[in-house]
Design brief:
Mean pLDDT: 96
Number of domains: 2
Radius of gyration: 21 Å
Structural class: alpha/beta
Helix content: 25-40%
Strand content: 15-25%
Bound molecules: fe (ii) ion
CATH class of the largest domain: Alpha Beta
Strand order of the largest sheet: 1-2-3-4-5-6
Low-confidence stretches: none
Distance between the termini: 43 Å
Length: 345
């Protein structure tokens, strides 16, 4: 296997290539560096077969959509990924095959709900759930410190001690570690109970990533155009979140709320289906088509998408445009289906 970190910066992109088939996968590529990646692939005589984003990034624009567009490369992410442009959704226990290189998927949420780690040969790519002598933040975008502790201690620390660790970020110049070293020396985790870890993470004030407003919602939505003015984090955090059960109960009230589905048409009729009587306006068309919703300015609207992330963006946009009773289906059609409420396809 050809294995290389390609950025040489605090933000890591890994190349894994098969020497027999000359197929390669890039993990967490950064949009500004596409030219460099293409040059390295050409140097090794490798053909890009797949891209994996270990999670939805808040600190850099992903190169994935550009690679899809330019080369038709398949994008692979966890099934909880909010973005509509994923070609293959994976879950814990799945394998990703790139030629003879096999990457085993470990579902390791906590940094985000869609975080995976990739176990390949003698090493594990941990994304941002566990870093070298540190852990990724768990304080926004669906992060949860307790779940992160469970992922690290229950999944990553179950790997053999000599497994090499390659994280998605490093801020101190480290390049690799091992599971055994992190078990012993990771100052956030070693010797701490779950409760102590949560207390520690809650006590740290992390500065927001400098580019979060420019990159997080474009990465979550695959929308990157001037017509969509994304709400800011404060506006997103004010959106009222309803569980599937709460949405189900409200649908029985009179008048029933408008269900506004903001996914793409192929998702609306796809595997997860849609809630009966919901109206489809894809997020990328919402700014132009908002006039269609004028009758609902002062009546309840519940916004729906795949994972509840794009719909939170849409709900905050509508609230900003003066709609007074907008809320969001938390967990989107994924949770709606998991709780076995009715869908149409
Ligand atoms: Fe991250």
């Amino acid at each position: 296997m050809i294995f290389q970190e390609l950025n040489g910066t605090q933000c890591k992109t890994y190349l894994a290539g098969c020497e027999n088939t000359h197929k390669a996968v890039l993990v967490d590529p950064v949009r500004e560096r596409i030219d460099r990646y293409l040059a390295v692939l050409a140097y090794h005589g490798l053909k890009l077969d797949a891209i994996v984003d270990t999670h939805t990034h808040a600190d850099h624009a992903t190169a994935s959509f550009e690679f899809q567009r330019l080369l038709g490369v398949r994008l692979i992410m966890h099934r909880r990924a909010p973005v509509p442009r994923v070609d293959e959704y994976v879950d814990d226990g799945d394998s990703i095959c790139v030629g003879d290189v096999k990457l085993d998927v470990l579902y390791t949420p906590g940094h985000t709900p869609d975080s995976i780690s990739l176990y390949v040969s003698d090493r594990v790519l941990t994304g941002d759930v566990m870093l070298i002598r540190g852990t990724g933040r768990a304080d926004f975008a669906g992060g949860d410190a307790g779940i992160q502790y469970d992922s690290i201690t229950g999944k990553l620390f179950e790997l053999p001690d000599d497994t090499l660790v390659f994280p998605g970020h490093d801020y101190r110049g480290n390049t690799q570690s091992t599971i055994g070293e992190e078990k012993q020396h990771n100052p956030r985790i070693a010797g701490r109970s779950r409760k102590q870890y949560i207390e520690l993470m809650n006590s740290i004030e992390f500065p927001l990533p400098s580019k979060i407003q420019e990159v997080l919602q474009p990465n979550q939505t695959a929308i990157d155009d001037d017509r969509t003015a994304f709400p800011d984090l404060a506006e997103l955090s004010q959106v009222r979140q309803l569980s599937p059960g709460e949405v189900y109960a409200r649908l029985k009230t009179d008048p029933a709320p408008l269900l506004l589905d903001v996914r793409e048409p192929d998702e609306y009729t796809g595997e997860l289906g849609h809630i009966p009587r919901s109206q489809l306006i894809p997020l990328k068309e919402l700014s132009q088509r908002v006039g269609e919703l004028n009758a609902y300015r002062d009546t309840p609207i519940i916004v729906v998408c795949r994972a509840g992330v794009r719909s939170t963006t849409a709900a905050a946009m509508l609230t900003g445009l003066g709609f007074s009773q907008v809320s969001n289906l938390k967990g989107g059609m994924l949770d709606w289906n998991d709780e076995e409420f009715a869908v149409e396809r």
